[in-house]
Design brief:
The structure is a single chain. The chain has helices spanning 3-26, 46-49, 67-77, 80-83, 97-107, 120-126, 164-170; strands at residues 30-32, 36-39, 42-45, 55-60, 88-93, 112-115, 136-143, 146-154. The chain is α/β, with parallel strands linked by helices. The strands form 2 sheets. It has a 6-stranded mixed β-sheet. The chain has a two-stranded antiparallel ribbon with strand order 2-3. The longest helix has 24 residues, at 3-26. The chain is flat.
């Protein structure tokens, strides 16, 4: 494939992206319950998660056991201050608040965190087809004391929400040829400190 063909496809993707954003703007929101969550500061309702904004982005994370969910959260983490200028942002998973906080600290995440504990929110808002807990995101709007779901998406290898796939693609690597890891340090063959109790 020539560079001209690549640029033409990139142009088409750009135009489709504009159409997709227009569709997201025009979708009619649907009312949802005021779900309950657990946080490191105690119980919270979904209305409380909105904070000072009338728009809320909930990032659906499968928890500390998922390398892919960790990859997406690592990538989105840098956007948190920018996103929070326009809407509230909370990362939710089924992990308990203390597990969430320890793992978030280990990754340097700046997200506000909330646990749905695998309860009603997960069962009604993150399920898809045969999957009980799909990674992705959803946006909500607050209108008085009512909550409406505006849009949602799922995360998966090669998706629109993790730019890493496009950068790997520039190098000729597809999503089937690379798998994220929690860390990439390789134990040296010789350890100058003797190598006792090394964890890899």
């Amino acid at each position: 494939m020539s560079q001209a063909q690549i640029q033409e496809i990139e142009s088409q993707i750009f135009e489709l992206g504009k159409k997709l954003r227009e569709l997201h703007q025009s979708t009619e929101p649907t009312e949802v319950p005021n779900y309950e969550f657990e946080t490191e500061f105690g119980q919270s309702t979904m209305l409380e998660l909105f904070g000072p904004h009338d728009k809320l982005l909930l990032i659906h994370n499968m928890g500390q056991g998922c390398r892919y969910c960790t990859l997406w959260a690592d990538g989105l983490n840098g956007f948190v201050p920018h996103l929070e200028s326009a809407l509230s942002v909370v990362l939710v998973s089924k992990d308990s608040p203390d597990v969430q906080r320890r793992f978030a600290n280990s990754r340097g995440w700046r997200f506000r965190l909330a646990s749905h504990g695998g309860g009603a929110y997960m069962q009604e808002q993150t399920k898809m087809d045969d999957y009980d807990d799909m990674p992705g995101a959803a946006t909500y709007e607050r209108r008085g004391d009512k909550i409406f779901r505006k849009n949602g998406c799922i995360f998966g290898p090669g998706d629109l929400y993790c730019p890493l796939w496009n950068l790997l693609g520039l190098a000729g690597l597809g999503e089937s040829e690379w798998t994220p890891q929690f860390r990439y340090w390789t134990v040296p063959e010789t350890m100058e400190d003797g190598g006792q109790n090394v964890q890899d």
